[in-house]
């Protein structure tokens, strides 16, 4: 009996100590004294973008009920900023001919009509659904590019179940982000406060909000932690710096917010890693700091301009460190230095190991690439470089990343005319498609399987060397050649595929 009394006393002591420690935790709540005098968080510096609502402020938690109420308050604060996005896209469905099995020569011989002229063809409206988050009171909404890309019509539904038409302000496929806007004089939107994603720590609680699987599940709230930061090489976008979370994210959540315990936006939910297509505890979100910069550029300029150094780079592993007599496996080693690039003009050389940018350490190629790209063209940066065992400081004035002059609308029109999409050849694309590094030109990144280009034999990974017997070495040159063409014209391409050159010709 005495032993049981001793155990009971120890248990009560443990509860009291735990309660005392738990009472020191702080969470954010709306309407606290601190929030009254706090300055509003500006979404953008421009007058046409309203300020977001102030973030939640701190309040102590003494009981489990307080903890429960804290999560409720966070969800209630963030949910009104979340919208369901509906898209519609009209596509042509071509009658399937038995001769399709044998390729385009039989189509031409038997005079199979084009898909848009075929009387047996039909049009079909494809409907899509995703999520978005309101970032200004005058109707700017942040979402994923893949949610609204190529949509003919876009509408949103708010938490009050009101539906509004929306238009695309700008898209950035390289980060899979887009900004849309609702024009409604009678509407005042609840904007979310944008937090600092760099301040996130692994293990922090976060909440994901969106419309998984369908509109009937709109504004679903799930809770988890930050599982990791800086995830890259996932294959979702060109510029990756994802927040990984185990908060449940499913199809339809794309474009919705990832929220911290202050009720602030810290990420845009983008994708899941799954073997089954369902939730497996591995979700990815674009960090809010990256999203804020892209959003601002799209609102101000309609496009994103990125800094360009002009080198190919690779991570330093044990073997490279040994080969270059490096004391540690750190930094990024320079491979090819592009002719007449900012890197060449500043004196950067093959074999240089970049350890710092403006005094901040560089850990890997992903970090270097993202930091260069997020720096405005024309700005001068200082690189800390290890060369032949000695540290050097090299000042580089960045220029604009080539291949960005074509607007989103022009790019969409060009892709529709061609039946395939292209991109400036980057080191990442060269590695993906096994193209020799250091090459110039444009590479095919996707082909519409119902297009004449696909039937002619054009495939993703093809390196385009010439258009209509004129050599091309850049995205701008390719775009200029295609701009002179119209539907029905003959497109004559010289393509390199797996070190072999081949011609393809077809009518647009």
Automatic annotation (TrEMBL):
It is found in: Periplasm. It comes from the Bacteria. InterPro entries: Chloro_Bact_Ser_Proteases, PDZ, PDZ_6, PDZ_sf, Pept_S1C_Do, Peptidase_S1_PA, Peptidase_S1C. Gene3D superfamilies: 2.30.42.10, 2.40.10.120. Residues 298-389, 405-499 form the PDZ domain. Its main location: periplasm. Keywords: Hydrolase, Periplasm, Protease, Repeat, Serine protease, Signal. The keyword Kinase does not apply. This is DegQ family serine endoprotease. PANTHER family: PEPTIDASE S12, PROTEASE DO-LIKE 8, CHLOROPLASTIC. SMART domains: PDZ.
